[in-house]
Amino acid sequence: MDVCDVNTKQKENFKVRCVIDCVIENNVPYISGHASQQWVVEQASSVNFTISDADDDTVEMFPLTPLPSGSTFVQLPGLNTWQFVWTPVNMDPVELL
Fold it and tell me: What is the pLDDT of residues 2-26, one digit of tens each?
């Protein structure tokens, strides 16, 4: 607890202003995995992404865009690893963010 030193013997009205600087340090999580992946039409494939956090913070990961039809993106039990599984049905390009 920070304490402001005030002269209590002073009789007149006065205002005390205390400024407390709080700095919360946090390291960003590190995500490892393939930045790009080649897929074969009508063949199931998967890619894993692992997150490590130096502060042991709880981290969740999810794609920012809708997943392609027939794909899943799930956390593997007990791990900081997520898996994307997909069987493409055509050659249309797909980008996940």
Answer: 455 555 555 566 667 777 777 778 8
